[in-house]
Known about the structure:
The chain has a single domain, classed as Up-down Bundle (Four Helix Bundle (Hemerythrin (Met), subunit A)), CATH 1.20.120. The protein is about 60% helix and about 0% strand. It has helices at about 15-20, 25-40, 60-80, 95-100, 110-125, 130-135, 145-170; strands spanning about 90, 140. The chain has a two-stranded parallel ribbon.
Amino acid sequence: xxxxxxxxxxxNLKGYIDAAGEGDFLKLFDQNTNETIRFFGGIPTDKxxxxxxxxxxxxxxxxxxIIDAERVFSFRAFVGSRLDSKMxxxxxxxxxxxxxVDVTGRSMESIIEEFVALxxxxxxxxxxxxxEQSAFKAxxxxxxxxxxxxxxxxxxxxxxxxxxxxxxxx
Length: 170
């Protein structure tokens, strides 16, 4: 699957897409998955529910946010990969989603397990996608979006949050 062109996504996703790196997407995806599992699994237990400032997410909440965002992105990629030109893909409010999920009673291991299950499902979308399907411009609410742009954005989005946790939590 080719790296997306700048006409395939909302310019707000450029930082995430660029952070994903170029190369074989499935190799990058698998590396990103394994790095994420190791990273979140290696966060000290006393930091799991810690936030660096009032109103900031904890590492457990950040991983849940990553899961929520990937669910939305992978659904959009699925729609595009099926060449659906009718469905308009709406944006989602990440803060509203975060406010409506409670991770305090969950272990980091449980959230990682959910991430792994989601990643397996997401991988199937990309493992069997054709170049034509990956390049199809689905109807984003404000910008067209391709499955390949969404795939690379997922990887970069994860890297962004890992960087934030490293800088502000560890």
